[in-house]
Specification:
The protein contains 12 helices and 10 strands. By secondary structure, it is α/β, with parallel strands linked by helices. The strands form 2 sheets. Strands 3-2-1-4-6-5 form a 6-stranded mixed sheet, sandwiched between helices. Strands 7-10-9-8 form a 4-stranded antiparallel sheet. α1 crosses α2, α5 crosses α9 and α9 crosses α11. The protein is elongated, with a radius of gyration of 23 Å. Its main location: cytoplasm.
Amino acid sequence: MGPHPAVAAIRLAVRRVLHDILNDSKPDAEPVVLVACSGGADSMALASALAFEAPKLGIRAGGVTVDHGLQPGSDARAEDVVLRLTALGLKPVESVAVDVGRDGGPEAAARDARYAALDAAAESHGAAAVLLGHTRDDQAETVLLGLARGSGIRSLSGMAAMSGAGGRYRRPFLTLDRQTARKACLVQHLPVWDDPHNTDPAYTRSRLRHEGLPALEKALGKGVVEALARTAQLSRDDADALDTWARDAAESVRDAAGLLECAKLYALPPAVRRRILRRTAIEAGAPAGALFARHIEEVDRLITGWRGQGEINLPGKVLAQRQGGRLVIRQG
């Protein structure tokens, strides 16, 4: 008799990702793959599947848990996760404590600190990849948050199955729902920890999870999560195509001195033009995370609605101004 369907589903998802990692690795190498584990159901299910599948493929599997220090006893909880991962047979396993700042709000600051710690752990262990337990439900929430921000099609594309420097981060569970991961833990008798922040209405994602999505399903019927996840993939495909178009067009709209020519920019479709403006602003020093759609729209009006406006102040002390038919974006 084979494994429970939930266990079989998570193992298959992980096996597919591990095969991709092997195909990207050097021949005869023994890649190291880490799982980022909070102790919650999603990441514990992921850790168990990695521990089961990796040895069969000649992959060394380890784990890392990040202690954000935001709750009493978080250090003891992190050590407990280390014990659980070690019991699964993962090695190396470590706990990393981080200091969470305040930039961008508590959720964004915690995320930034977490990814910085995971990057450092991956570098330290020479890991080919770090697996993350984001599910289809997480994807749906991310799409709705992007829609609420009005940040454009890229934010609607949600989380990529592969992201980070060199494709370091892999998300095997984006096609699986949260209940599958929880069921897999239940039938394998894996203890899980439910983070109280996930039910705290002070956090935007928590309110969306427990109030927003249920209200949408009540109004629109079941299938909202699946539809949002499908929207993410379709949006990602469109955004990737537009990004490629913008990269190819970027040089054709510059003069011999490398300055952007307003007339040539004006002739481009708005979606392509704004991508060129955004990339130019980031290259000038504007932080990508602080550069919002409204900033790019203001710069865009220097091209499409020119009435002698003054310079535009962008994040990172970057200035954008129109000078004699040219658009100059530079450090102030």
